[in-house]
Amino acid sequence: MAKTPKISDAEMQVLQALWDQSPMGATDLADRIGPANGWSLATVKTLLSRLLAKGAIQAESEGRRFRYRPAVKRETVAGRQAGRMVERLFGGRVSPLVAQLAEQRELDPDDLAELEALIQKLKQ
């Protein structure tokens, strides 16, 4: 898929469940994520329809039921979501985001080493 679709927060919960375990039917998804969100089976089916229309999931027929699986990678969607957040909250600048995260969470030596390696790679 050339362009990553824009995914709503509710749709993201469906995708997360499918990334964790797939394929799954609508009833299985409703049982898994519906109660915590107050969603009925009809709501989950609506979200599945939206994700299908966006090309974010695929459906395969299994008798009279459909089973769903992701059509986009978690990393691809996460990258788009992160990019939208950086644009919305930090005017497209990455360094204020990293500074904010570093202030909110204690970075361990492995995190710092990965960030340093990334910076060196980007400088080349």
Task: Write up this protein.
By secondary structure, the protein is mostly helical. It has two domains: 9-70, Winged helix-like DNA-binding domain superfamily/Winged helix DNA-binding domain (Arc Repressor Mutant, subunit A), CATH 1.10.10; 74-123, no CATH class. Helix content is 65%, strand content 11%. It is built from six helices and three strands. The chain has helices at residues 9-20, 26-37, 41-54, 74-90, 95-104, 109-123; strands spanning 24-25, 57-62, 65-70. The protein starts with 8 loop residues before the first helix and ends with a helix. The model has no long low-confidence stretch (mean pLDDT 91).
Helices and strands in order, then pairings?
Layout: H1 9-20, E1 24-25, H2 26-37, H3 41-54, E2 57-62, E3 65-70, H4 74-90, H5 95-104, H6 109-123
Antiparallel strand pairs: 1-3, 2-3
Q: Short description, anyone?
A:
The chain is mainly α. The protein has helices at residues 9-20, 26-37, 41-54, 74-90, 95-104, 109-123; strands spanning 24-25, 57-62, 65-70.
